[in-house]
Every structure is written in C-alpha cells, then in structure tokens.
What we know:
About 40% of the residues lie in helices and about 15% in strands. Helix 1 crosses helix 5, helix 3 packs parallel to helix 4 and helix 9 runs parallel beside helix 10. Bound molecules: adenosine-5'-triphosphate and magnesium ion.
Amino acid sequence: xxxxxxxxxxxxxxxxxxxxxxxxxxxxxxxxxxxxxxxxxxxxxxxxxxxxxxxxxxxxxxxxxxxxxxxxxxxxxxxxxxxxxxxxxxxxxxxxxxxxxxxxxxxxxxxxxxxxxxxxxxxxxxxxxxxxxxxxxxxxxxxxxxxxxxxxxxxxxxxxxxxxxxxxxxxxxxxxxxxxxxxxxxxxxxxxxxxxxxxxxxxxxxxxxxxxxxxxxxxxxxxxxxxxxxxxxxxxxxxxxxxxxxxxxxxxxxxxxxxxxxxxxxxxxxxxxxxxxxxxxxxxxxxxxxxxxxxxxxxxxxxxxxxxxxxxxxxxxxxxxxxxxxxxxxxxxxxxxxxxxxxxxxxxxxxxxxxxxxxxxxxxxxxxxxxxxxxxxxxxxxxxxxxxxxxxxxxxxxxx
Length: 400
Ligand SMILES: Nc1ncnc2c1ncn2[C@@H]1O[C@H](COP(=O)(O)OP(=O)(O)OP(=O)(O)O)[C@@H](O)[C@H]1O
Ligand SMILES: [Mg+2]
C-alpha cells in the first residue's frame, strides 16, 4: 500500500490506478501519524498542491525516521528549482501530476530501491516461510471440493499453522458461507494492486475464521469474476507463500485461467473422484490435461469422496479406470451437509467422525510432509489407533 498526502479526496482514485491501493491523508501531521502507524509502509506520495516547504520538511523527517521509505513528489510543472530543492531534501523522484505511467514507473523503482537498502525488511517476514500450496480440484461440480478445502484448511489452522484459503470459485464461491463468515473484502480488491501485492495488501483483503484460518473470498458479484486476471492469482500465491505455512485453493469445476495459475504453483493437487461414471470420466480427462500441461505426476493425489456409497461402482473400478492409486477414501455421511448448514467444519465439530478421521489422515499424511508419515504401514493402514474405518485404507492397482 501507499500513503498519499493530498487535500483532494478524488486524488485517491486517480493514483490508485498507478501505484496500487492508496491511503490518503490531508495534513502533514496526519502523514507523520500514518507513517508511524504503518511500520511496513514503503512508499509515500506527496500531492501537487502541497507547498514545497512542507513537502521538503516532511521528506527530511522521513529520511531520518524511516530511511527505507521512498517519497515521490507530484508537481503540476517541473522546473530546475523544484527538482533541486526536492532532491536535496531526500525526495526520490519528482513526477508531473498527470503522468500516471511515469508515476507507476517511479513507484516501482522506489520499491526496488527500498527492497535493496532494507535487505527486504519491507516485507518483513519475506523468505522466512515457504508455504505448501494445495489446490483442491475436480472438473465435476458438487463432488466435495469446498467441503475438503474448508475442512483441511481449518484443521491445519487449528493445529497452529498459518493457513490461507483462497476461494477461486470466483463466480459462485461459497467458502465464506460454508464457514459462516461475512467477508468485507474479496480478491477483487487486489486487482488495483496488481504488481504491488505485499503482506499488507493480503491482510487488507483477508477474513479471519475463528480457527485462525485466513481466507480470501470470491467477489460477492458473480460478474466480477471476469475482471480478475489469472496473473493476480499467481501473484497472490507467490506473495502468500512467503507469509503462510499452507496456502489452499478451492476451485470451480472448470479449467479457468485462475485454476491453471493455481496448478502452476501447487505442491499438491487434491483431485476428487466419486463413485459415478461422469466423475471418473472427468477425472481421467483432468489427468490427461494435466499431462498435456506438463504437470508433475508426483503432485497429484486422488481422493475418493463418498467412497462407501452403494451405487454399483467400486473403488477398484475407479483405480482401474484412472490407472492411478487412490490415496484416501472419505465415507459418505449426512453429517457432512449438516455441518455445512451449521457453518462449522465437521473436522472441528466432530473430530472422531469417520469423515473427520479420513480428512485428518489426508492432511497429516499428504499435506504436512512430502513423504508419508511413519505412523502408517506399507499398505497405508493407520497405526495410530484412531480406528480403521473410513479413509484409512487405500486401494492401489497392485493391491486388487
Ligand atoms: N463425504 C460426504 N458425505 C456426504 N455429503 C457430502 C460429502 N462430501 C460433500 N458432501 C456434500 O455434497 C455437497 C457438495 O459438496 P461441495 O459443495 O463441497 O462440492 P463442490 O465440489 O465444492 O461443489 P461445486 O463444484 O458446486 O463448488 C454438499 O452438500 C456437501 O455437504
Ligand atoms: Mg465448491
């Protein structure tokens, strides 16, 4: 984000476009306070109507108090006197007020300089974390993507990990409603910050769930989905990785540009199958598409949801059709929709329920570490004494 000192309320919209989200103040005192309140801030704009003396006075103050902060000065006209005075006080660049492209370039240069002089202290925890990115996907609707994404992420958050769940079902996302949250912001608010998304920007759009989970919601207006470029998703994931232990993505049942961006950056793809022919056919096509996209096979995890539904198709049939092992099986239970209607993930509400046991198994064995944990034996059976029902057994091609 960027602090703007300008008395004109309409200035925010004008400069938002060039430098990302802007917070405006209208006096020098307010600017000093705003800077004190924002230890992560890296860029200050001083509007064209602020007199030179006050602008230089503030810049000298910022140079001493917060040397990593870049001050850019906007003027209606540039002349040698203004330039000399500004640069002597420590202004990084002077830009004409109507040159928004020049302003965007100057802001980028200033941020780069800030990163170099502060050794990346701007993004204070940058590099300290490297989240595992997990995308939950199925090309068929209604198979349990949101159920899995919300349960897995709230579980991981409840164990003390720093977790971000991003709702990529941009038109009809229901992460918010499933977790009984009322998001004030959504991913659409990041669009104006393209190229400048940082930890503060992410914080400004997340909604916190009581489990400690952070969520980035889908827009409330389905039509807004078209205004979100895939590049925003890629940038959001890239930055979020540095600040979270896990980044999970719920998806729509389609290969949108947003989903492709998520695939690109995922360590694990949780691909959901159910015991019906269309779901299996779509999953087969998904695997073929992932092959075409050059996706690493090792990232894929097939999970069979509603695995005990008596519908004539068996888990072995799914394994044979997919030519791929099933990692975890999650049983069918009316307790799942009941938990969604209560707005409390079943994994937190009924931890001993077979569905919760299976999902926890998925989280612990496959999301927490790249290799299966030693608490499972070679056949995938748990040895932790929590009971062998539900997703404890896994079907493999060799094990038929
Ligand atoms: N194991 C299960 N047992 C019983 N019901 C389940 C199970 N898993 C999911 N459901 C129910 O199936 C329905 C669809 O689940 P969910 O919304 O998670 O699917 P989705 O793949 O996200 O759907 P969409 O593609 O529409 O976003 C919900 O009512 C959910 O409660
Ligand atoms: Mg869904």
